[in-house]
Amino acid sequence: MTQLKPDQATNSAVDRSPVPSEQRNGRGGGTIKKGTVRRLGDRVFQGLSTGSGALILIILALVAAFLLWQGLPALTAPAADLPYGPFPQFVAPLIFGTVWAATLALIMGVPVAIAIALFISHFAPRRLAAGLGYVIDLLAAVPSVVYGLWGIGVLAPALQPVFVWLTENLGFIPLFAGTASGTGRTILTVAVVLAVMILPIVTALSREVFLQVPRLHEEAALALGATRWEMIRMAVLPFARPGIVSASMLGLGRALGETMAVAMVLSPSAIVSFALLTSQNPSTIAANIALSFPESYGLGVNQLIATGLVLFVITLGVNMIARAIVNRRKEFSGAN
């Protein structure tokens, strides 16, 4: 075997060493600098991300400015000049109806959504979970008008006998007091429709949060002798609590701003009442704007836009409260 001299061995080793990517040249002999391309891509991505975030804030500020500019004449005009009467007396029942209907929808919809999300993520077989998740996601694509037609044509007639039974047997409870509506178009029917509408949003987000729970936490709970439900209660739900709160607040925002379904199902009145089954029901801000805007003019339009400003403030306040709740527990969870 021919032995190489020390200097030849050194030269051979140098020749066999890989050439840095920055010094490689193609057929044309040009130098390719991957670091420069990577840094350019990072700068472009950072610019797009920053611009998108700033654009959202600008749009939000423009919406608030428009509502304030158009609603200010109704807020500063004398009460005698306003078509719908003094603004505080006009908007108070609408605020109550908006918050009341959304709260009822949240109470009914969130537990069902969490149960469905837990079933999909921890109990259902993989094939069934995939199909069920797909069906739940499809509910979000159903238009509001379809939900309203379903509420009028199917849900209200089906619930009317139940309302009669509740008023006859549980009428001593203030929520079920009074005479039951003959059509079934009550605030409770609207709340059920809204609960179905927020179901896909809360379910999809909760499912993704449940799937992020560390597998080691679940296995450790089961190894210590916990049952499936105890493992979920001790490991899954505490980890996912901020995500559940965020999902619930997104659903609440959908319920607060829903217009057509509420306007089609409800027979509204300018009242403040906790009765769920009577024919006189408080209206919501969004539904009242949709029903009254075509016939309004002058200060009436400004008065309706001012109620829209109130709804904007309510939604913004709800989201700020939700963010404060999530931030308070962000160090205990990776689901935010």
Describe the structure.
Part of the binding-protein-dependent transport system for phosphate; probably responsible for the translocation of the substrate across the membrane. It comes from Microlunatus aurantiacus. It is found in: Cell membrane. Residues 95-322 form the ABC transmembrane type-1 domain. With 336 residues, the chain is mainly α. It has one domain: MetI-like (MetI-like fold). The chain contains 11 helices and 2 strands. The protein has helices at residues 6-16, 34-76, 87-123, 126-139, 144-169, 187-211, 215-223, 228-257, 260-265, 285-292, 299-328; strands spanning 268-269, 281-282. A two-stranded parallel ribbon has the order 1-2. It starts with 5 loop residues before the first helix and ends in an 8-residue tail after the last helix. The relative contact order is 0.13.
Fold topology:
Elements: H1 6-16, H2 34-76, H3 87-123, H4 126-139, H5 144-169, H6 187-211, H7 215-223, H8 228-257, H9 260-265, E1 268-269, E2 281-282, H10 285-292, H11 299-328
Parallel strand pairs: 1-2
Helix pairs in contact: 2-11, 3-4, 3-6, 3-8, 3-11, 4-6, 5-6, 6-8, 7-8, 8-11, 10-11
Transmembrane segments: 48-70, 90-120, 132-156, 187-206, 259-277, 297-322
Function: Part of the binding-protein-dependent transport system for phosphate; probably responsible for the translocation of the substrate across the membrane.
Family: Belongs to the binding-protein-dependent transport system permease family. CysTW subfamily.
